[in-house]
């Protein structure tokens, strides 16, 4: 292999690696660009006579809940019974806990992992719940006392409790207020509403002003599915997004935290296949997105909405949360008020399934083709194989020249061997004579690089598609082996862990590496013209596959299946081309006149006859 070929291979490795990085960091699945809720928000307030100027509001310094510290909040009366209650609709089962008036479980009825409904609240060892309320902008001490419960109907439940604030004497103030949390569901939606209401016992402003905040509503500690050991950023991830002023942005955390005081239309915490999108009302909440260690889970991801002080004696805020899969069929219903149970419109949540990649159009086209093949044969593994075959057929005009160039070099190996023997003591002369031979035979050792440029966009688009295509979740290809194309397969589990691999032994990455080595040996065996090139060839033939083995070891099996089949087809195409070209060159060597005729064919013109 000459220097230019080595450079081409190295650049190819760099391009592929950079492509992986770009795709995993910048072009993974994103959340929808939801617009602000257009209907009128329920927000009953007292009359203007009940409002008090901000400068007259008290500002307790403590954020401590349920203690004797001045300014802290304490529940009144006897504690109600701690109990659970579940609301079930067509898509999930939500289980509530009267302790904290929170949701402790949201199970996806139509989406399973190993036959078990996906749990969207990934709890740690302390069994944390979601949608706790905090006083002020505190995020350490949730209001987790037990609440009274009132089941209004099959899809509506309300929790309520009276509270007071500790005064200077360490006793609860006679001025009390009632906190209510109402959850409203409907039969078919993954979205539900949360109404947070405060009502003072006297005609005065709600006595909650902790550094300018009244309360904080939280989604924590993490979204499911819960079966992951780490967030690698490629095959498993959690990302935050915000939408404001018509623009969607990925929240960049600094010191594990992102805070915005600007008005936002929505904020979301998004995984690979599921998302939680919080759509607040028009109140200018402060949104805080954090990643913190939570005991019992690999990483906690939390979303907080902190409400400014309430300037009336009664107030109700409305939050809407979509908790479910990133599927267009479930998200697009919020574009038309008649299609969803809450009368919402123009939220454009289906954009969550669209790729923002520069190759999004290609990814969409490939997704359509994959679905087409699946409809013909309802097995996504077979559909991936058929799609791979189609791609190779379409790209064959671009790759044909590369195969022919490799075949020519392979067929010329006897001549190259003669040159190596003749000029074994003169490397420079050997290189020059080899170059002359390539020139005479019109062989370009760099001919395989241009076709890679045509394949690269398809490579990136398919990586994005097969890495996050929702329909691959739970899709079985071969029972007993590849039982979920969205996950890495395994043939058995070791009783110990191997560095960089873990305890699972996976067959597909091994088959992929073997096919890659065979393909590279086949394409490069004829290109080395000296010992140094042969040594470099061997290094590239084994170094690249080994590198990709570790990079792709935990990749989804559907993705590796595509690359494995692609290698097999490439090997087959190259073998056929090698045989055809070898026979052709042997004929030309045996009958040089055939080569001359071929060169002049079509160039000879018959001279017109002269008139007599």
Overall description:
There is one protein chain. The chain is α+β, with helices and mostly antiparallel strands and 612 residues long. It has helices at residues 3-26, 328-331, 360-376, 380-411, 413-422, 427-440, 449-468, 507-524, 531-551, 557-590, 592-600; strands at 73-75, 84-88, 92-97, 102-113, 116-119, 133-135, 148-153, 156-166, 172-184, 191-200, 213-219, 239-244, 247-250, 257-260, 266-270, 274-280, 286-292, 300-308, 314-325, 492-498, 502-505. The chain is built from 11 helices and 21 strands. The strands form 4 sheets. Strands 1, 7, 8, 9, 10, 12, 13, 15, 16 and 19 form a 10-stranded antiparallel beta sheet that branches. The protein has a 5-stranded antiparallel beta sheet with strand order 6-11-18-17-14, with no helix packed on it. Helix 1 runs parallel beside helix 9, helix 3 packs across helix 4 (380-411) and helix 8 runs antiparallel to helix 9. It is elongated.
Overall outline = elongated
Q: How far apart are the termini?
A: 62 Å
Please tell me the overall pLDDT: 80
Going by CATH, the architecture of the largest domain would be Distorted Sandwich
Number of domains as seen in the coordinates: 2
- Category from helices, strands and their pairing: alpha+beta
Which radius of gyration do the C-alpha atoms yield? 33 Å
Helical residue percent? 25-40%
**CATH topological fold name of the largest domain:** Beta-galactosidase, Chain A, domain 5
């Amino acid at each position: 292999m000459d220097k230019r070929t080595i450079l081409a291979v190295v650049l190819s490795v760099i391009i592929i690696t950079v492509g992986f990085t770009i795709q995993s960091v910048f072009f993974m699945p994103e959340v929808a660009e939801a617009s602000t809720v257009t209907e009128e928000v329920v927000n009953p307030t007292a009359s203007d006579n009940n409002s008090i100027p901000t400068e007259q509001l008290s500002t307790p310094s403590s954020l401590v809940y349920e203690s004797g510290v001045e300014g802290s909040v304490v529940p009144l009366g006897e504690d109600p019974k701690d109990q659970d209650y579940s609301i079930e609709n067509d898509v999930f089962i939500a289980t509530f806990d009267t302790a904290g008036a929170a949701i402790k479980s949201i199970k996806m009825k139509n989406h399973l992992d190993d036959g078990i409904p996906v749990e969207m609240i990934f709890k740690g060892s302390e069994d944390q719940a979601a949608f706790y309320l905090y006083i002020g902008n505190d995020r350490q001490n949730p209001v987790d006392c037990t609440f009274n419960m009132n089941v209004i109907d099959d899809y509506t439940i309300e929790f309520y409790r009276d509270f007071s604030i500790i005064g200077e004497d360490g006793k609860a103030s006679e001025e009390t207020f009632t906190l209510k949390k109402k959850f409203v569901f409907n039969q078919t939606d993954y979205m539900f509403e949360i109404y947070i209401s405060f009502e003072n016992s006297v005609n005065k402003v709600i006595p909650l002003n902790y550094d300018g905040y009244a309360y904080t509503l939280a989604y924590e500690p993490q979204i499911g599915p819960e079966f992951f050991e780490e967030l690698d950023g490629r095959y498993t991830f959690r990302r935050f997004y915000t939408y404001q002023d018509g623009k969607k942005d990925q929240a960049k955390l600094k010191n594990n935290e992102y805070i915005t005081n600007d008005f936002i239309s929505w904020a979301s915490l998004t995984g690979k296949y599921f998302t939680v999108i919080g759509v607040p009302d028009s109140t200018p909440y402060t949104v805080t997105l954090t990643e913190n260690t939570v005991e019992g889970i690999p990483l906690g991801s939390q979303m907080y909405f902190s409400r400014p002080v309430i300037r009336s004696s009664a107030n109700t805020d409305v939050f809407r949360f979509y908790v479910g899969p990133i599927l267009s069929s479930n998200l697009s219903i919020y574009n038309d008020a008649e299609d969803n149970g809450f009368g919402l419109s123009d939220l454009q949540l289906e954009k969550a399934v669209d790729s923002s990649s520069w190759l999004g159009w290609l990814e969409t086209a490939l997704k359509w083709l994959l679905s087409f093949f699946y409809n013909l044969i309802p097995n996504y593994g077979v559909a991936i194989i058929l799609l791979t075959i189609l791609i190779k057929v379409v790209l064959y005009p671009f790759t044909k020249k590369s195969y022919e160039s490799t075949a020519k070099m392979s067929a010329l190996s006897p001549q190259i061997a003669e040159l190596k023997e003749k000029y074994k003591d003169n490397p420079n002369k050997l290189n020059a004579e080899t170059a002359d031979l390539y020139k005479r035979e019109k062989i370009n050792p760099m001919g395989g690089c241009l076709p890679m440029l045509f394949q690269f966009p398809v490579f990136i688009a398919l990586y994005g598609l097969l890495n996050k295509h929702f329909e691959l979740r739970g899709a079985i290809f071969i029972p007993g082996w590849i039982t979920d194309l969205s996950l890495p397969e395994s043939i058995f589990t070791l009783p110990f862990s191997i560095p960089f691999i873990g305890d699972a032994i996976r067959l597909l990455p091994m088959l992929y590496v073997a096919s890659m080595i065979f393909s590279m040996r086949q394409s490069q065996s004829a290109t080395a013209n000296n010992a140094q090139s042969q040594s470099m060839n061997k290094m590239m033939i084994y170094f690249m596959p080994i590198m990709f083995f570790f990079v792709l070891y935990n990749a989804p099996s559907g993705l590796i299946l595509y690359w494995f089949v692609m290698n097999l087809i490439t090997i087959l195409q190259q073998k056929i081309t090698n045989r055809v070209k070898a026979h052709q060159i042997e004929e030309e060597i045996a009958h040089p006149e055939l080569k001359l005729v071929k060169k002049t064919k079509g160039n000879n013109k018959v001279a017109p006859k002269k008139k007599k």
